[in-house]
């Protein structure tokens, strides 16, 4: 056999073996495309200071915020995996991107996963979000807890290193960000931009959170702490109509501590909790405190029909503002992926407050002391 023929034969063998290795690696890796499209037609009373009502397609969400994303996993051997998530929020009404126009504003991280938990890096949820996942019955619903504190269903931060692990029903987690929000709209409206540390001040725009959670067959309990440090242009909004408190110094803090729980009794799930918020600042507004309470229930009348509801009470002490909101929802599942729903809620404001019933945005802040009625009929499809 000629030398050229020998090289060709071995070359074909090398290509064949490489193909086998590539096929094996491909079999151990996967990438999944997923998403939710959710929108509806909403009515809101007293949508402005003049007392006018509005009928619209809300700009942000119905039951679940619309999004599309990709998640991937690769088996590295030794019970360890590489994982990633890229998730983009969008507005169905206009087709534009959410989270300040970011391409992957909801999540963008890569990490390693093993029996010891998951370590991830990038833009991702803080422990505030994960701690509320089971006790907050309505979740990110348009007439849910986000109407009173928009940070809660959107608790995520940029430049974040996070860890989560679950051991025999007990979940622990923590996150650390050196610069929590570079776009200014990624966490909640009115928070302001907070890019990160500057030379000589490593605390500016820092965010950290921690969580401890237990989930059992019949009940669960959770607690978490979330602290955001101040920085240039940063602010703390209480969503009650009062001008946001400036937290421009790295010594300023916007902290939330919470405790919550849920039980499953005779087919009914009950959940509730408390969130205490403390903003300390050198701003003229000084330090501000708030307390937010919630209690909800969910019941499946049939496997295709779910009824749930939640009540909320928020008190912002230094602003002398208070609000109470009640929200009821019915969801009918046309299939595993498609559902129609109806949701109605009413919010009672105190004499000095301007909380709004709708988390859907679009200028629905009522006059001081006026309550609001909100109602939406919507359609949701998952893929």
From TrEMBL:
A molecular function annotated in GO for this UniProt entry is:
porin activity
* BP term (GO), one: monoatomic ion transport
Q: Does the keyword Membrane apply?
A: yes
User: InterPro entries annotated for this entry?
Assistant: Gram-neg_bact_OMP (IPR050298), Gram_neg_porin_domain (IPR033900), Porin_dom_sf (IPR023614)
Keywords, A to Z, come to: Cell outer membrane, Ion transport, Membrane, Plasmid, Porin, Signal, Transmembrane, Transmembrane beta strand, Transport
Signal peptide residue numbers: 1-27
What are the Porin domain coordinates in residue numbering?
Answer: 16-350
Q: Where are the transmembrane segments?
A: none
Give the record's membrane topology: Multi-pass membrane protein
Tell me one Pfam family matched here. Porin_4
Where does the UniProt annotation locate this protein? Cell outer membrane
Record-level GO cellular component terms: cell outer membrane; pore complex
Per UniProt, subunit arrangement is:
Homotrimer.
Q: Which PANTHER family match?
A: MAJOR OUTER MEMBRANE PROTEIN P.IA (PTHR34501:SF9), PROTEIN YDDL-RELATED (PTHR34501)
Q: Tell me the protein's name.
A: Porin Gram-negative type
What is the species of this protein? Caballeronia insecticola
């Amino acid at each position: 056999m000629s030398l050229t023929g020998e090289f060709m034969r071995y070359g074909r063998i090398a290509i064949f073996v490489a193909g086998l290795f590539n096929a094996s690696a491909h079999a151990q890796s996967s990438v999944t495309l997923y998403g939710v499209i959710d929108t509806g037609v909403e009515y809101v009373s007293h949508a402005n200071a003049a007392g006018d009502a509005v009928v619209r397609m809300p700009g942000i969400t119905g039951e679940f915020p619309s999004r599309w994303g990709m998640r991937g996993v690769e088996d590295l051997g030794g019970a360890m995996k590489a994982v990633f998530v890229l998730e983009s929020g969008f507005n169905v009404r206009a087709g534009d991107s959410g989270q300040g126009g970011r391409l992957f504003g909801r999540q963008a991280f890569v990490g390693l996963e093993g029996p010891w938990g998951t370590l991830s890096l990038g833009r991702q949820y803080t422990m505030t979000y994960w701690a509320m996942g089971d006790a907050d019955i309505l979740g990110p619903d348009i007439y849910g807890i986000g109407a009173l504190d928009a940070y809660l269903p959107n608790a995520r931060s940029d430049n974040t290193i996070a860890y989560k692990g679950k051991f025999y029903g007990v979940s622990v987690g923590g996150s650390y960000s050196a610069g929590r929000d570079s776009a200014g709209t990624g966490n909640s409206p009115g928070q302001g931009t907070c890019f990160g540390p500057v030379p000589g001040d490593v605390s500016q725009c820092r965010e950290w959170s921690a969580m401890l959670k237990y989930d059992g067959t019949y009940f669960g309990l959770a607690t978490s702490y979330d602290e955001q440090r101040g920085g240039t242009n940063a602010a703390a909004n209480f969503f009650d109509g009062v001008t946001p408190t400036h937290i421009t110094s790295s010594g300023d803090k916007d902290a939330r501590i919470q405790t919550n729980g849920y039980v499953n009794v005779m087919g009914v799930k009950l959940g509730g909790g408390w969130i205490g918020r403390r903003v300390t600042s050198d701003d003229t507004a000084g330090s501000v405190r708030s307390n937010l309470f919630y209690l909800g229930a969910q019941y499946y009348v049939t496997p295709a029909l779910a009824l749930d509801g939640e009540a909320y009470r928020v008190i912002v002490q230094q602003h002398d503002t208070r609000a109470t909101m009640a929200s009821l929802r019915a969801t009918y599942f046309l299939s595993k992926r498609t559902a129609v729903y109806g949701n109605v809620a009413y919010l009672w404001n105190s004499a000095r407050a301007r909380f709004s019933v709708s988390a859907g945005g679009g200028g629905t802040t009522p006059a001081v002391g006026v309550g609001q009625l909100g109602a939406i009929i919507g359609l949701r499809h998952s893929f």
